[in-house]
Design a protein that fits this description.
469 residues; alpha/beta; two-stranded antiparallel ribbon; 38% helix; F-box domain-containing protein; F-box_dom
Length: 469
């Protein structure tokens, strides 16, 4: 009798076990989402990549195992935005070109031609001027059958979901997976290139609204992560970049994480919807946690008069958006990750953070993590001077210390610094906190890089506890 393979043996054994036991077995194969364990790493396309495929492998053993594994398998889902450009700018010269192709136009293209032709007829001749090209007259979305528009050399991209999302939505409905999908990562490496053109704002807003409306109508995650280039992230968050210096920072991707705890999810059923404030992502749910990772600012330190450069400030805008809806979106915990940000950027973040009155936990990481070799890479460092990097790091922590001093934290609120994993940095951060304690602002150490607000210590000088691990 031929020797049975491990998979065959597992299939035979599974047939004799109850479902409850099989579920217990699969729970041992479950692991943390890579988007959670890698969120504080420097942003990269590998955010959702994992070497652990145990659940996927088990789902291929037999149909019974697949039914057991399915709810866990899709608990953490990834949705990639379509990278294909679908929008064309319609100007006077395009309408003239379309006039020579009337017999070949689709019905949708003919509608565009007729509508825009009448518009240009009533316009002055300067509509044909080359200086008018940068002012997009209109953005029209290509539809199936629009062969003429598809052949144009200048087709633009706006964020949109792929056709695969429709298939995924049907799959979720068919297997009743909506209640099991807890986390969704929306990801793209495609840059939005029309942010300087005002007439593109309305189509962008409609396209982004469609993305979030489709996603939340099919799924109901308590955690959502967005990974995108800064220009695209600004569009997806309905936020301005407030900077024209993005080239200096060369940030490939930003991450944002929004989490809604179970209690707020239950109470939201009985309260007004945050969406009444708008259709932006930050208003879609009563989020209670926000994390943001803007990556490294190291490239900008190599530029002339680097300190005058402004990094993208979408987080600043998002915090202001959330501060407007305090009765609905109560952010209680906040985490910010950035590699050597400029202190001017930190100042903006801190000011906006101070407008949210519900914070009970804040966390910062402003230096490279152990997985990052930035400081030892001459290529990454370029002409940047280590002294400048640490100068900005120290000034940023001075701003954080001021925030810890002035913000009205409740008793038991927590502050943590991930930078304290490095012993030398821990000493620096602890010195800032000790100054607060010396001035009568009670922050009690509870672990490495962790302190809690203790009102009982206000007004007292507390000797630092060297034995706290």
């Amino acid at each position: 009798m031929p020797e049975q393979t491990a998979m065959q043996q597992l299939t035979i054994n599974a047939e004799s076990l109850p479902n409850e036991l099989l579920i217990q077995i699969t729970s041992y194969l479950d692991c943390e989402a890579p988007s959670a364990s890698k969120f504080s790493h420097e942003p990269s396309p590998t955010l959702t990549t994992s070497g652990n495929t145990s659940l996927k492998d088990l789902s291929r053993v037999c149909w019974r195992w697949r039914r057991i594994v399915l709810p866990i398998l899709f608990r953490y889902s990834k949705i990639e935005l379509d990278t294909n450009p679908q929008w064309v700018p319609v100007d006077a010269r395009l309408i003239d070109t379309m006039q020579t192709q009337l017999t070949k136009l689709s019905s949708h293209e003919m509608q565009i031609y007729q509508r825009m032709r009448s518009k240009f007829k009533s316009s002055a001749m300067f509509a044909f001027d080359e200086m008018f090209d940068d002012l997009l007259i209109n953005l029209c979305r290509i539809q199936d059958g629009d062969d003429f528009l598809k052949s144009l050399p200048y087709v633009h991209w706006l964020p949109h979901l792929t056709g695969n999302f429709t298939d995924f939505s049907r799959f979720v409905e068919q297997y009743d997976l909506k209640r099991y999908i807890k986390s969704v990562v929306v990801f793209t490496e495609r840059e939005y290139e029309l942010r300087h053109i005002a007439t593109a704002d309305a189509p962008l807003r409609r396209a982004v609204t469609e993305v979030w409306s489709q996603l939340f109508s099919s799924l109901d995650p308590t955690r959502i992560v967005v990974g995108a280039p800064p220009t695209t992230m600004a569009g997806l968050l309905d936020a301005a970049m407030l900077s024209s210096d993005g080239w200096a920072f060369n940030m490939k991707l930003h991450y944002i994480e929004l989490i809604q705890d179970q209690q707020s999810k239950i109470s939201a059923v009985h309260s007004s919807n945050c969406a009444s404030w708008g259709e932006s992502l930050v208003y879609r749910r009563p989020w209670t946690h926000l994390s943001y990772n803007e990556g490294s600012s190291i490239t900008a330190y190599s530029t002339y008069e680097y300190h005058l450069k402004q990094s993208p400030k979408m987080l600043y805008i998002v915090l202001h958006q959330l501060a407007r809806v305090q009765n609905c979106c109560s952010i209680r915990s906040f985490a910010f990750t950035s590699v050597f940000p400029f202190s001017t950027n930190m100042e903006c973040v801190i000011k906006a953070l101070g407008k949210i009155p519900t914070l009970t936990k804040v966390q910062f990481q402003l230096a490279p993590g152990p997985e990052n070799n930035l400081l030892s890479s001459p290529k990454r460092m370029g002409r940047a001077q280590p002294h400048d990097l640490w100068l900005e790091w120290n000034e940023s922590y001075q701003l954080i210390a001021t925030f810890l001093r002035l913000y009205n934290f409740s008793n038991g609120a927590e502050f943590s610094s991930i930078d304290c994993r490095e012993h030398s940095l821990a000493e620096e951060v602890e010195e800032y906190v000790q100054r607060l304690q010396h001035d009568g602002i009670g922050w009690r150490k509870i672990g490495v890089g962790r302190w809690v607000r203790d009102h009982a210590l206000d007004g007292e000088w507390v000797e630092p506890d060297q034995d706290v691990a």
